[in-house]
Write a structure and sequence with these properties.
- The chain is built from twelve helices and 17 strands.
- With about 475 residues, the chain is an alpha+beta fold.
- Helix 10 runs antiparallel to helix 11.
- It is globular, with a radius of gyration of 22 Å.
Length: about 475
């Protein structure tokens, strides 16, 4: 009973159990724990804050390694050419944000769950709304201290060691956290990022950070035409000016190319709410315009005092379909608008609790060239069901969350069939079945569908090199 709280997370995966929970207080403690577990052949499941949605921290036997006491910011180097801070793996995103704000800096990936621990966000390559401009966690990790399952401690600096893994399957041209990372750079740091804790424990990390700008705006754009909303989102994609440390390269899709380019428009995020999402949100936020069919939420942080004038010029082109605009310019106002966005998952969870069935939620991302075509396929497929559903999320990254909310077991089974049907459409388009939440213990079949049996076998062989006894986070990503 004392340790049962470590046997669950936000995934609704039930049945977790374990024999003990260990609380290391140093990197050497982690190493000692893993050495002992290897000698006794005891599985070890790494436990973060429990915010994951794919069952990654849920143990099925063996020991739990809780990172919660490794929660210190150990160093900052904010005056360097590439400003950075060093943090222990159990430090929460909220701690990091609070520390950096005192020094007028911020950590750009900004994953949504602020209670999440940084180590967990690294092994999941977490992202959030501002990934649209700043990229996911991977792009902001300068170095790692990793404890291997054998107890060996690695100090890894970006650009100093090569990854031994080269995947034979193609990598999606989207946000992607489906399996081990492979690209032409083959940096060892990148192999551990997104590995879902199967290759090593993140004891500490050095994070690149950037100064917090003084000027900020946030906008809710309510429209009465869904196609116009999709069109506006596409225009805003062409205004993205990416920011990454160390001059990491961009694709051509990252370069502004709009025929009508508004030079002072530079959004951090572009978030979408479909008609059903807005309807559910109205129950939490009473003043949403009744005539609004869909909505975009955008943020922009920069030093341009006349940015709102440029937004006004752009929105003039949509005046016939634009119902209302909410605008925030202060931190307090911006936080209020951001909280409205966070009210939607709360409303979904309340609906789930009332219906008594798990939701079926999609974490799919689609290449930009295929986005509108595949999204319209979503709508055709979902129009054939009476199950309550809605769509919202990171439309700037072509990464929307479709949520099916079944009210009984028959609807749940039907929702699972729709899920697999849409996953197939996404994979055929060159997209991914996991853009930010990982594979965990729930998406093995989907991963095999995306990368094939050979792709799974390649990853299993790599894990064997790092973890000969398969003790660390067993059954995450693939079956042991």
């Amino acid at each position: 009973e004392v340790i049962s709280g470590y046997f669950s997370d936000h995934s609704y995966l039930s049945g977790g159990y374990g024999e003990s929970v260990l609380f290391p207080e140093s990197t050497n403690d982690i190493a000692d724990s893993l050495i002992d577990s290897n000698l006794s052949n005891s599985p070890v499941t790494i436990s973060g804050a429990g915010t994951g949605t794919t069952g990654g921290r849920i143990p099925f036997g063996g020991r739990v390694l809780s990172m919660e006491k490794l929660n210190q910011i150990t160093e900052d180097n904010l005056s360097a050419d590439v400003p950075s801070i060093s943090v222990q793996g159990g430090t929460s995103l909220a701690q990091i944000a609070e520390y950096l704000k005192r020094h007028q800096f911020f950590y750009p990936p900004d994953p949504t769950e602020t209670s999440a621990q940084i180590g967990a966000t690294i092994v999941n390559n977490s992202s959030g709304a501002r990934t649209f401009k700043y990229g996911p966690t991977r792009d902001w990790i300068l170095g790692l201290t990793v404890v291997l399952p054998t107890g060996k401690i690695l100090e890894i600096e970006r650009g100093k060691a090569h990854s031994p893994y080269i995947a034979s399957h193609p990598q999606p041209a989207t946000k992607n956290v489906a399996g081990y990372y492979s690209d032409s750079k083959q940096d060892l740091v990148d192999l551990f990022i997104g590995s879902e804790g199967t290759l090593g424990v993140i004891a500490s990390a050095r994070l690149a950070v950037i100064p917090e700008p003084s000027a900020k705006i946030a906008l809710y754009l309510f429209l009465n035409n869904e196609q116009a909303t999709l069109n506006l989102a596409q225009v805003l994609r062409t205004h993205r000016i990416p920011v990454r440390p160390l001059g990491r390269t961009f694709s051509l899709a990252d370069i502004p190319s709009s025929p009508k380019y508004y030079s002072q428009i530079d959004p951090l995020c572009v978030e979408y709410f479909d008609p059903r999402a807005l309807e559910l949100l109205r129950k939490k936020v009473g003043n949403i315009p009744s005539s609004a069919i869909s909505c975009l939420y955008v943020e922009q942080w920069n030093e341009q005092e006349n940015a709102l004038e440029w937004w006004s010029k752009l929105l003039t082109e949509y005046q016939t379909v634009l119902v209302d605009v909410w605008c925030a310019e202060s931190d307090k106002e911006l936080n209020n608008l951001k909280e409205i966005r966070h009210n939607l998952p709360v409303a979904i969870n309340e609906t789930i609790a009332r219906l008594g069935q798990p939701k079926v939620s999609m974490d799919f991302a689609i290449p930009e060239s295929s986005f509108e075509k595949i999204y319209k396929r979503y709508l055709i497929v979902l129009s054939k069901t009476n199950i309550q559903w809605l769509t919202f999320g990171h439309i700037g990254d072509c990464h929307l969350h479709v949520n099916l909310l079944p009210k009984n077991e028959d609807e749940y089974s039907q929702a699972q069939r729709f899920y697999m049907q849409l996953a197939t459409e996404v994979i055929i388009s060159g997209g991914t079945i996991s853009a930010e939440h990982g594979i965990g213990k729930l998406k093995h079949k989907l991963l095999e569908k995306q990368i094939g049996i050979n792709g799974i076998s390649e990853m299993q062989q790599l894990k064997k090199k790092f973890d000969p006894n398969y003790i660390l986070n067993p059954d995450n990503i693939f079956k042991a």
